[in-house]
Amino acid sequence: MALSEDSHCKPLGKVRPHQTQNEALVFEKSSPGKRGYKLPPLDVPAADAGEVLGAAHRAKKAGLPELSEIEIVRHFTRLSTWNYAIDLGMYPLGSCTMKYNPRVNEWVARIEGLAEAHPYRPDHLAQGQLQVIDLLQRCLTEITGMEAITLQPAAGAHGEFTGILLVRAWHESQGNARKKIIIPDSAHGTNPATAAICGYTVENLKSNAEGGIDLEALERQVDGETAALMLTNPSTIGVFESRIHRIAEILHAKGALLYMDGANMNALVGKVRPGDFGVDVMHLNLHKTFSTPHGGGGPGSGPVACKKFLEPFLPTPVMVKNEKGEMRWEYDRPQSVGRVRAFFGNTGMFIRALAYILANGPDGLRQTTEDAVLNANYIRAKLEDVFELPYKTASMHEVVFSDKRQAARGVKTGDIAKRLIDYGFHPYTVSFPLIVPGALMIEPTESESKEELDLFIEAMRSIAREVEETPEVVKTAPHSTRVSRLDEVQAARKPVLRWRP
Ligand SMILES: *Cc1c(COP(=O)(O)O)cnc(C)c1O
To answer: Does 226 contact ligand 1 (Cβ within 6 A)?
Structure first.
């Protein structure tokens, strides 16, 4: 298959592999005997591989592609240019907080003594690294207003899992395991999954018309079997739960705990502290709130901060300090829920988050929060005359529209998102949260300048006009990418995820 007739990048001569859409030409590059490495001549007698490796010796050649070094470099460089990245432009994927990762973070994370520290180094030889971890722990407990912390969990959902294990261990220590966890319908989807995986029954709690919690319904629902409420705050519609104090009181009166999903702390840092408004345990997403690379399945970090009474249950090891200020990992914690991650967590992410916190300082962190909220509200103000705004409550770090007006013309949120690609932007989050039918969930983060926001707003307004005038253009987008519409059902049911010889 050559380039299609209507392609805007018609080749002049022979089609070169990087210009073609033909998968075979793009991906099937292997030819026998090519290699991308060269070994020096042997300076010892050759050994028999079968003898040395025993049962581990392959009977057949591994089916790996055979390529020269430059072919590999070109292949991956080419693929990278087909991708979108925060380093290319705004990445308004709501709830994911795709903010820019300042290069100073990368510089610090690559300092040899930190980057190459071996996790098996004895504590007395790792004091510098332990100090980094200790300082980050102290910064995060101060930012959240909590009293104890673990940095072990490797992602937000993993933090939720760890936090709910603490809740369960505490209830068990009180002689009452309890059975259920209440989760509002405005929560992140990982919350009910977490509660279920920790062995709880999940009870749904409906939001009120403002997108907040219905306090009377909550009061009726909480009983002696309620272990906790998991509250995403700000919620997935970008609304701050302003009566959280009262929610904490209702729970505590019945012996239940308040878990806060703090993945959206980028809307609160430097303004309010969950520890001050009654939260017992929460997680943070370092790979959202505190920059650090995000997406593509790369390393994340989901620290869990809690109040003092939950500290004995934290995963082992826990960092302790003696009177001389020397630090060591303590493993002997009889009430601990155990380990949730190898070693101490993703330490590279700790270094990046700490660099971000220290480079911004307290005033800078508060400013980033204010800018994130300002940017979301600027987009809201500039788009609310063309896109339906289902919840009128003030927006925090993100704004959620619905496709109601466009759907009336047969164009759905997914179509608008795909058309946005043609305008040079990554799509916003599509069809989530579920309480908003046809949701467009937009989170610009504080990284974006007014100029970039204006370009985005212009693109969205222009697409809204197209929906009125030439809806087909939107319904068949994207038109500028290597591949246009995929068979999404097929891609989800039968994903082809690896190369096969
Ligand atoms: C991103 C997110 C999570 C999950 O975090 P992961 O690191 O992707 O596991 C949980 N809750 C909220 C509100 C989030 O935005």
So the answer is: no
Ligand 1 pocket test target in 93, 95, 398 with most atoms within 8 Å of CB: 95
Residue 74 has pLDDT above 50, yes or no: yes
Check: CATH 3.50.50.60 for 363-483? Answer: no
Q: What is the CATH number of domain 103-358?
A: 3.40.640.10
Instruction: Give the pairing of strands 281-284 and 304-306.
Output: antiparallel
- pTM metric for this prediction: 0.89
Please check the confidence at residue 297 and state whether its pLDDT lies above 70: no
How far is residue 205 from each of residues 28, 86, 297, 462, measured CA to CA in Å? 52, 36, 31, 38
- Using the mean position of ligand 1's atoms as its centre, give its distance from the Cα of residue 110 in Å: 26
| pLDDT at residue 402 greater than cutoff 90 | yes
| Mean of per-residue pLDDT scores for the chain | 92
Q: Which atom of ligand 1 is nearest to the CA of 232?
A: 13
Q: Compute φ and ψ for 231, nearest 5 degrees.
A: -120, 120
d(CA 194, CA 200): 9
**Distance between CA atoms of residues 243 and 435, nearest Å:** 20
Segments making up each domain of the chain, as ranges: 103-358, 363-483
What is the rounded CA–CA span in Å between residue 260 and residue 174?
22
Mean pLDDT of 254-273: 97
